[in-house]
Amino acid sequence: MSDAQAVKRSASKAEGDERHEAIYRAVSDAIVEQRLKPGARLREDALADVFGISRTGIRKILQRLALEQLVTLTPRRGASVTRPTADEAKDVFDARQLIECGLMPDVARRMGDKEAAELRDMAKRERQALRNGEQSVAIRLSADFHVRIAQLSGNATLAAFVESLCSRSSLILAVYGHPGHLGCESHDHDDLVGYLETGNGERASAFMSRHLKAIEASLSMVEEEENVPDLQQIFGG
Amino acid sequence: MSDAQAVKRSASKAEGDERHEAIYRAVSDAIVEQRLKPGARLREDALADVFGISRTGIRKILQRLALEQLVTLTPRRGASVTRPTADEAKDVFDARQLIECGLMPDVARRMGDKEAAELRDMAKRERQALRNGEQSVAIRLSADFHVRIAQLSGNATLAAFVESLCSRSSLILAVYGHPGHLGCESHDHDDLVGYLETGNGERASAFMSRHLKAIEASLSMVEEEENVPDLQQIFGG
DNA sequence: GCTTGTTTTATTGTATACATTGAGCCATCA
DNA sequence: TGATGGCTCAATGTATACAATAAAACAAGC
After folding, report:
1. Are residues B96 and B152 in the same domain?
2. A43 lies in some domain
3. Closest Cα partner for A195 from A210, A183, A185?
4. Is residue A12 domain-resident?
5. Is the CB of A98 less than 8 angstroms away from the CB of B94?
6. For A87-146, how does the pLDDT look when each residue is reduced to its tens digit (9 = 90+)?
7. Domain span at residue B36?
8. Inter-chain CB proximity B155 and A67 less than 8 Å
9. Total domains, chain A
10. What tens digit of pLDDT does each residue of B83-112 get?
11. Nucleotide nearest to B74 (CA to C1')
12. CATH number at residue A129
């Protein structure tokens, strides 16, 4: 059953707010999982038809996604999946460095057996997805892993921000990453859980820093050239 | 001329987007400057009348403010200025500690004479406002000072997040701060500029940490008790 | 044949009407 | 007199109709 059908089916009973939340999540997931690729247009009518609500609700959802930088709203042009610039990509990864690494001590302090097991399970499922070639699932699980760790810090505000950063990272990987080469490969996530489990916040922080640097370094930061740059150069020269 | 009148007057010529932006800023400013106090209800009809647009545009603005946690949207109850909880307050100040302090090295590196002069001017105007008893102006300038510094880091994503945190801090001060005792008193801001000007990121970071801790310590973190807690206790016991 | 101007169409922006629901009020009854 | 029930009203949730506008298709001229 498709996402849209699942949402529609639950519509009859669910409250309006929950329906909106489900639709929001369906679109957000599709973007994070790269089934909706950067630059893809999101027409209001089409989305309204697919999810069985009117454009009013769709616009509300698109605005929310726009504030999270997942979609770009161009006046009179409508919504499209955001195509991050190289500058934005750098900002996002710098922010993740600062915050995710800075949270490691807190996370290590609050880490218990249950939390460690949960994280290990997520890492395991991520590896399995990678082996099975389920790229979308792997991307999502990787983002979820980072978000879950941030949540374990106990700071809801920072966790929500990390969630936003991870979603945007998925877009960045879609644009600048090499196809087939996923960000969080190897056993990095398992190793990280190990450091956190032993309460070694400093080592976890250093490891997270290397981990994020490795992801960023794997990107090929080539901005696509303008379509018609000749005219621009004429004006410039 | 009042904010609403100013917005209305510019409405005839301005594009719709700019009008919305102006209204958003008018409401946001009123909240940050504590002219709209936490808990104040924001009825859609009233706002629509005041600003001369329909409820549709007002709802869009309220949703944006809600995502920034400045207003709280209660289903079927409408919008009201957010009253931060003690937990939220702690999260916000912890987040500011991590981010604003972490940005100091970058800021110190990019600090030039022009930037330092701009910051000194803001600090000066803030002190003047405090002396003149213009509390709203002082609150705004204090928040602007912190935001401007974050912008100087060059990371737009983190700067936007700091802006959100500063706005929420204003709400927190409104609820938990002592009346008349403003957060950023004394010459802290001037001193901070001094450290940044000399490129001493580490000292600036340490100073910012103390500065934020001092603000947080000045709060009286007493959650107001529930109105009718007896029933709750009966169920609990 | 390519560029430019015009018409058409498709899509978003805005407002308003209607439905829904929570809150306040009043009357009735214990 | 106080509480509970229903009733009225006010405010929000939702959808739809209309207006504005940008893209696209098309036609005309160079």
Report:
1. yes
2. yes
3. A210
4. yes
5. no
6. 999 999 999 999 999 999 999 999 999 999 999 999 999 999 988 988 889 999 999 999
7. 3-81
8. no
9. 2
10. 999 999 999 999 999 999 999 999 999 999
11. D12
12. 1.20.120.530
- By Cβ distance, the residue of B63, B88, B155 closest to A94 is B155
Shared domain for B112 and B205, answered yes or no, is yes
CB contact under 8 A, B158 and A91: yes
- Angstrom CA distances, B155 to A164, A198, B69, stand at 16, 33, 22
User: Cα(B117)–Cα(B115) distance, rounded to whole angstroms?
Assistant: 5
User: What CATH number did the domain enclosing A63 receive?
Assistant: 1.10.10.10
A197-221 pLDDT, tens per residue?
A: 999 999 999 999 999 999 999 999 8
The answer, yes or no, to whether residue B18 has pLDDT greater than 60, is yes
CB contact at 8 A, B84 and B169: no
Query: Which of A21-25, A147-151, B98-102 shows the lowest mean pLDDT across its residues?
Result: A21-25
Summarize the confidence of residues A64-91 as an average pLDDT. Answer: 95
C-beta separation of B150 from B100 below 8 A: yes
Strand C and A237 CB separated by under 7 Å: no
Is B132 within a domain?
yes
Q: Is strand D less than 7 A from the beta carbon of B60?
A: no
Q: Which of A95, A200, A162 is nearest to B91 (CA)?
A: A162
Same domain, B118 and B194: yes
Residues A109, A162 within the same domain: yes
What is the H or E stretch that residue B12 is in?
A: none
> Which residue from A minimizes the CA distance to B60?
A60
How many percent of chain A have pLDDT more than 70?
A: 85
Please list, residue by residue across A128-150, b when 16 or more beta carbons sit within 10 angstroms of its beta carbon and e when fewer do.
Answer: ebbeeebbebbbbbbbbbbbbbb
